[in-house]
């Protein structure tokens, strides 16, 4: 059924402002000029060229010709650099910790430090962030703290993200305006449109806050990507979509993910202002996201940024990426296009950094991470009864109550004699006594 | 879903045309000589007087004085004759009026909705609060979740329950689990999905479904199905204000056919509670939504069968006292009321339109069998749609109509 724009809502863009009708006129449901020449097209750039990639620093940290650096002072630059360095420090230790079986799972952000930290720095600290799973750096930038990171990965009693219920790296913190990560890919994309619409309707935040939504280029193949961009454009809301195009979705190279010009080419199809940026150039990311955020707020509409980067690490600890790509390819990328090294060279050229400080920083970060790790390692899991809480708000349904009581009965019967439970109970705070001592059960 | 939506509109139009020739699955053809079988129009279950409406069990008025307790004072209350879609509209109007964060959205809701449930709401509250979305069910669900994450009240419409499946991931993996997975830090309690459900006489495969059973295992979610205008208004207002995401399934054949005097004030009916409509001691008849009326008809056919049915209804069962219960909430369901009833009656027949295998009746019969094992005098019987898709020209033989309910009652009583 053809839907006519005549009853377009009052806050949406009127089709009539789009382009100019030619003398040949246009169809009644469109402002598209009528032409007599049969011509197919396939690029959004108006030629056969690809969408360009915005960059300000070259591979050795020098501003490229004509580049305008985003406003940045030494203090901000040092903070960017420290946070970029913190990610691999954390990643290396937690990756190895997983390899030793101390945590069940982990996902590194190797190679994407500039995309994550550069964008985090460009957002306001209370912009609502909806991430995929490789964006821990945003939380770190906002002061989430290493202890909270460790507590979540260990799922111990101090895990504020989710009481040990979710897999490692599924962080969340309303205090830091970071919505809890979930595993199903792309579900956060239409949710971000709803979050942004709610922000638009919230007094005090309507002209101040945006929703920033991160996802990988693989997730962008999900139907929810289509839904999210479509909703944020037709029901205008300040939603900033940040695609991390790192070349791989687990083993699937992006060449098998799409045939078009990446993710950026899709933005214009939804009527969304779009830019592609060099995701390994932290200053380009900073500048692009700042401008994207400004547009979100000024226009009250969605903006799309595609950050081109490379997933240097394995997809996760359950993945050996050398099964589907050459080790030399990864080594080359690490050497030639390292976002941290690139920014370090820039810092040095400004006289903001030197080898001595580099050593000091690396040692300090490693010590901080190890300290948090050692602390988290000794903390017990939460109370076993938390298995049953938070399923519902308000009155707890009978089935949840009964299931809790059934487990309690089984614990009384087998808790001491069934070895797998006995061992496991010892790892919980109060060893399950919160359940065993419940007065309500019969 | 291009053609699908077109079909939806055709269905809607023919519904409107069928307004004066009310389709009634409970009538047998030819009608009995006596002609006194209740239909939806003459149902005793519907409350057609002000007095009976105000005495609806469990009804509590939510008065303007928000700090005060809810009240059951009925004196001075007004009622208005409404059909189900008008009652649904009335509930949303109250929700929008009392809660500035509340918004209503979905496909075609701005002009009033394909079933008229949102008539005039966009004019009254503005396009910012009552608006159309693009045709994307997963998007509608995700968008609603996003709004609810920010503490806003999101009332989303899925045009037909048959089209809720594209949103299944958002509903089951996201909405239902957000409070739990975030350790209680985030929730989407402000989210309600409204969706028309059940058969309509000519809906075919994709305008007839009853998908409540698919959501019954989605802990964290609530599923509610009203049977009448009063129920629709009270249960919808409770659903909108419940601190959990709720799927509110509206039996679409009742939109125009079920008419009651509905209190015009703001009132709620409790979620998670079944309602005993007809008390009895010999058999428990449990159902929800449209089949409530088929069950009522079956009870009349049992006590006074038409001459053609007399040989098939033994005299010994005609005076049986059947307890008719409307479950109302599918998740969580009211195990206590059903267990108490079956412990008294010793017999249970469950009626629903969805197919039998892994339908909601399967869950309920398993649980009741566990709780009432020693009290049961007959196997729990399920009268449901067949395990087939809902074929257009075969609907009268697909749905659990009054004759099938009657047969199940007789079989269970004479087991």
UniProtKB/TrEMBL annotation, chain A:
Enzyme Commission designation: 1.2.4.4
Record keywords, A-Z: Oxidoreductase, Thiamine pyrophosphate
Coiled coil: none
InterPro entries to which the protein is assigned, alphabetical: Alpha-ketoacid_DH_E1_comp, DH_E1, THDP-binding
Cofactor: thiamine diphosphate
Domain annotation Dehydrogenase E1 component: ranges: 83-381
Record Pfam families: E1_dh
The keyword Phosphoprotein appears for this protein: no
Enzyme class: oxidoreductase
SUPFAM superfamilies found in the cross-reference section: Thiamin diphosphate-binding fold (THDP-binding)
Catalysed conversion reaction: N(6)-[(R)-lipoyl]-L-lysyl-[protein] + 3-methyl-2-oxobutanoate + H(+) = N(6)-[(R)-S(8)-2-methylpropanoyldihydrolipoyl]-L-lysyl-[protein] + CO2
Keyword Transmembrane part of the UniProt annotation: no
MF annotations from Gene Ontology: branched-chain 2-oxo acid dehydrogenase activity
GO biological process, any: branched-chain amino acid catabolic process
Highest taxon above the source species: Eukaryota
Similarity field: Belongs to the BCKDHA family.
Function in brief: The branched-chain alpha-keto dehydrogenase complex catalyzes the overall conversion of alpha-keto acids to acyl-CoA and CO(2). It contains multiple copies of three enzymatic components: branched-chain alpha-keto acid decarboxylase (E1), lipoamide acyltransferase (E2) and lipoamide dehydrogenase (E3).
Official protein name in the record: 2-oxoisovalerate dehydrogenase subunit alpha
Phylogenetic classification of the source organism: Eukaryota, Fungi, Dikarya, Basidiomycota, Agaricomycotina
Gene designation: BCKDHA
From TrEMBL, chain B:
Keyword Oxidoreductase recorded: yes
Entries under InterPro entries matching the protein: THDP-binding (IPR029061), Transketo_C/PFOR_II (IPR009014), Transketolase-like_Pyr-bd (IPR005475), Transketolase_C (IPR033248)
UniProt keyword annotation of Oxidoreductase present: yes
Transketolase-like pyrimidine-binding domain ranges (all copies): 82-257
Catalytic activity, as annotated: N(6)-[(R)-lipoyl]-L-lysyl-[protein] + 3-methyl-2-oxobutanoate + H(+) = N(6)-[(R)-S(8)-2-methylpropanoyldihydrolipoyl]-L-lysyl-[protein] + CO2
Cited SMART domains: Transket_pyr (SM00861)
Keyword annotations of the record: Oxidoreductase
Residues of the signal peptide: none
CDD domains: TPP_PYR_E1-PDHc-beta_like
Necessary cofactors: thiamine diphosphate
Pfam families listed in its UniProt record: Transket_pyr, Transketolase_C
Swiss-Prot/TrEMBL GO biological process terms: branched-chain amino acid catabolic process; generation of precursor metabolites and energy; response to nutrient
EC id: 1.2.4.4
Enzyme class: oxidoreductase
Molecular function in Gene Ontology: branched-chain 2-oxo acid dehydrogenase activity
Protein name listed in UniProt: 3-methyl-2-oxobutanoate dehydrogenase (2-methylpropanoyl-transferring)
Organism: Hypsizygus marmoreus (White beech mushroom)
């Amino acid at each position: 059924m053809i839907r006519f724009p005549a009853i377009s809502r009052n806050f949406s863009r009127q089709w009539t402002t789009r382009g100019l009708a030619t003398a040949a006129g246009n169809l009644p449901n469109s402002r598209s000029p009528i032409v007599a020449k049969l011509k197919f097209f396939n690029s959004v750039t108006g030629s056969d060229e690809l969408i360009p990639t915005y960059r300000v620093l070259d591979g050795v940290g020098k501003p490229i010709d004509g580049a305008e650096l985003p406003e940045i002072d030494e203090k901000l630059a040092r903070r960017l650099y420290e946070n970029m360095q913190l990610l691999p420090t954390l990643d290396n230790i937690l990756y190895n910790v997983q390899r030793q079986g101390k945590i069940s799972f982990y996902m590194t952000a190797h190679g994407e430090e500039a995309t994550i930290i550069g964008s985090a720095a460009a957002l306001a600290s209370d912009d609502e962030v909806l991430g995929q799973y490789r964006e821990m750096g945003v939380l770190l930038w906002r002061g989430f703290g290493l202890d909270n990171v460790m507590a979540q990965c260990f799922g111990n009693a101090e895990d504020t993200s989710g009481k040990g219920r979710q897999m490692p790296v599924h962080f969340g913190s309303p205090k830091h305006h970071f919505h809890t990560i979930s595993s199903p890919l792309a579900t956060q994309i239409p949710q971000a449109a709803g979050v942004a619409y709610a922000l638009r309707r919230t007094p005090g935040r309507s002209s101040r806050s945006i929703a920033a939504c991160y996802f990988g280029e693989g997730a962008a193949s999900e139907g929810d990507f289509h839904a999210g961009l479509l909703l944020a454009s037709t029901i205008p809301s300040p939603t900033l979509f940040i695609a991390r195009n790192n070349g791989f979705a687990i083993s699937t190279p992006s060449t098998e993910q799409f045939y078009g010009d990446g993710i950026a080419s899709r933005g214009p199809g939804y009527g969304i202002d779009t830019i592609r940026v060099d995701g390994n150039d932290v200053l380009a990311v900073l500048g692009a996201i700042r401008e994207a955020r400004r547009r979100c707020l000024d226009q009250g509409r969605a903006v799309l940024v595609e950050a081109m980067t490379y997933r240097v690490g394995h997809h996760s600890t359950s993945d050996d990426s050398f099964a589907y790509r050459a080790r030399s390819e990864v080594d080359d990328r690490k050497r030639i296009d390292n976002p941290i090294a690139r920014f370090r060279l820039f810092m040095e050229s400004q006289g903001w950094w030197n080898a001595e400080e580099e050593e000091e920083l690396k040692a300090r970060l490693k010590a901080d991470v190890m300290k948090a790790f050692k602390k988290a390692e000794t903390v017990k899991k939460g109370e076993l009864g938390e298995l049953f809480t938070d399923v519902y708000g308000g009155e707890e349904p009978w089935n949840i109550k009964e299931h809790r009581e059934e487990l309690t009965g089984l614990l009384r019967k087998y808790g001491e004699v069934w070895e797998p439970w006995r061992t496991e109970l010892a790892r919980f705070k109060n060893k399950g006594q919160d359940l065993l001592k419940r007065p309500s059960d019969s | 879903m291009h053609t699908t939506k077109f079909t939806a509109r055709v269905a809607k139009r023919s519904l409107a045309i069928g307004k004066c020739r009310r389709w009634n699955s409970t009538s047998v053809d030819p009608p009995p000589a006596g002609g006194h079988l209740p239909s939806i129009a003459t149902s005793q279950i519907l409350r057609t007087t002000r007095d009976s409406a105000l005495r609806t069990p469990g009804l509590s008025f939510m008065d303007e004085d928000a700090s005060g307790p809810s009240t059951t004072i009925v004196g001075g209350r007004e009622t208005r004759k409404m059909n189900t879609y008008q009652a649904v509209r009335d509930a949303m109007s109250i929700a929008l009026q009392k809660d500035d964060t509340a918004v209503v959205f979905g496909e075609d809701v701005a002009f009033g909705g394909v079933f008229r449930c949102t008539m005039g709401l966009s004019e009254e509250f503005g396009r910012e609060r009552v608006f159309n979305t693009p045709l994307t069910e997963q998007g509608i669900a995700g968008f609603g979740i996003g709004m609810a994450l920010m503490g806003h009240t999101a009332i989303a419409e899925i045009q037909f329950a048959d089209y809720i499946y594209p949103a299944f991931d958002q509903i089951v993996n996201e909405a239902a689990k957000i409070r739990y997975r975030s350790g209680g830090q985030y929730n989407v309690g402000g989210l309600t999905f409204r969706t028309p459900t059940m058969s309509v006489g000519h809906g075919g495969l994709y305008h007839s479904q009853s998908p409540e059973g698919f959501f019954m295992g989605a802990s964290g979610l609530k599923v509610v199905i009203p049977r009448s205008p009063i129920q629709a208004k009270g249960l919808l207002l409770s659903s909108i204000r419940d601190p959990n995401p709720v799927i509110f399934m509206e039996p679409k054949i009742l939109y125009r056919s079920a008419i009651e005097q509905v209190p015009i004030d703001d009132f709620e009916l409790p979620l998670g509670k079944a309602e005993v409509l007809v008390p009895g001691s010999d058999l428990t008849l449990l159902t929800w939504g449209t089949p409530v009326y088929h069950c009522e008809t079956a009870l009349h056919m049992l006590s006074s069968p038409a001459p053609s049915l007399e040989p098939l209804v033994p005299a010994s069962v005609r005076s049986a006292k059947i307890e008719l219960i409307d479950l109302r909430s599918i998740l969580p369901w009211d195990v206590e009321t059903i267990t108490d009833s079956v412990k008294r009656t010793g017999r249970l027949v469950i009626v629903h339109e969805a197919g039998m295998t892994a339908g909601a009746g399967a869950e309920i019969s398993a649980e009741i069998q566990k709780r009432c094992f020693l009290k049961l005098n007959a196997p729990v019987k399920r009268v449901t749609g067949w395990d087939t898709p809902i074929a257009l020209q075969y609907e009268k033989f697909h749905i659990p109509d009054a004759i099938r309910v009657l047969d199940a009652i007789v079989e269970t009583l004479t087991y």
